[in-house]
Design a protein that fits this description.
alpha/beta, six-stranded parallel β-sheet, 16 strands, about 30% helix, binds ribose-5-phosphate
Length: about 290
């Protein structure tokens, strides 16, 4: 087995190779210093992959990383890889999981269709709608990132976890079992992409260190209202923890209210403090 990493996920790919004790194959991402003037992507697989089971790790965010993933998958196949497993830590376009209006594509499926051209199977993490993986044209599995978050929060010695909405309850539940602390939840209503409202609810948080656990932090709007509620109810310390730190628009300002923010390495950011390499390595070992 060999591991190849796209430029969005090199550190994670190296981590997965280390966990599995298999070789890591370097990739060149520039033909000339500075890259192509029109900013098209370039990839060149620098090691031998012929006859190997190749694990190709690449997050599909931002958009140029999708092109890079397809180029790498094609290059690895052309170079004679026997089996190709795509590890897409953050599956960009996952939220367009159905046709909301006539004339739209089901974008998540569009990406999957193109992946299936060269890849034999797909592993991803905390995809927006795991049920849709069954509709993909290649075998696909969602891997949980919550063990990594749970381990971090255990060492941070938080007193309890909070799911900021109904969707996050399953994440908070899983992380709380690993961190060994209880969890509670809020109810959230999304008004628009930037605005959410929560239903007032009494929480037993006075004097406590609380970690808000979610799959994604995007604009940080969800975290901002949850932090406000926790502070109003007397929480001593508030940490925001997520698998995917997308951090767009007003995220920086919204997250200022937190004592700490942690995200995994599915998307690299200054808040990346946890690696999900052990979780993906375990899923790869289980592939059979
Ligand atoms: C929603 O279901 C997700 O779990 C997150 O709560 C949401 O994507 C976070 O978005 P934002 O940071 O923009 O509030």
């Amino acid at each position: 087995m060999k591991v190849v990493g796209g430029s969005a996920s090199i550190a994670l790919a190296r981590g997965i190779a280390r966990e599995l004790s298999v070789g890591f194959v370097d990739v060149a991402f520039e033909k000339h210093p500075g890259g192509f003037p029109d900013s098209e992507r370039y990839v060149r697989v620098l090691g031998r992959v012929s006859g190997e089971h190749v694990v190709l790790v690449q997050t599909t965010h931002p958009d140029p990383m999708i092109v890079e993933l397809f180029l790498l998958a094609d290059a690895v196949r052309d170079a004679g890889a026997m089996r190709l497993t795509a590890v897409v830590p953050y599956f960009g376009y996952g939220r367009q999981d159905k046709r909301f209006l006539d004339g739209e594509p089901v974008s998540a499926k569009t990406i999957a269709k193109h992946l299936a051209v060269d890849c034999d199977e797909l592993l991803t993490m905390a995809i927006h709608n795991p049920r849709m993986l069954k509709t993909f044209p290649l075998p696909a599995r969602d891997v949980s990132g919550m063990p990594a978050i749970g381990r971090y929060l255990k060492s941070a010695k938080v007193d309890m976890l909070l799911a900021p909405d109904g969707n996050a309850i399953r994440f908070a539940k899983e992380a709380s079992a690993i961190a060994g602390v209880p969890f509670d939840s809020l109810e959230k209503k999304r008004i628009d992409s930037y605005t959410v409202k929560i239903t007032p609810k009494a929480l037993a948080v006075r004097g406590k260190s609380v970690a808000i656990v979610d799959d994604v932090i995007s604009t940080g709007g969800t975290i901002a209202v949850a932090v406000k509620e926790l502070r109003a109810q007397g929480a001593r310390q508030v940490i925001a923890a997520c698998v995917h730190g997308v951090f767009v628009g007003p995220a920086e300002a919204n997250l200022k209210a937190c004592d700490d923010v942690i995200a995994t390495d599915t998307i690299l950011s200054p808040y990346t403090k946890v690696s999900v390499a052990p979780e993906f390595a375990a899923a790869i070992r289980a592939l059979g």
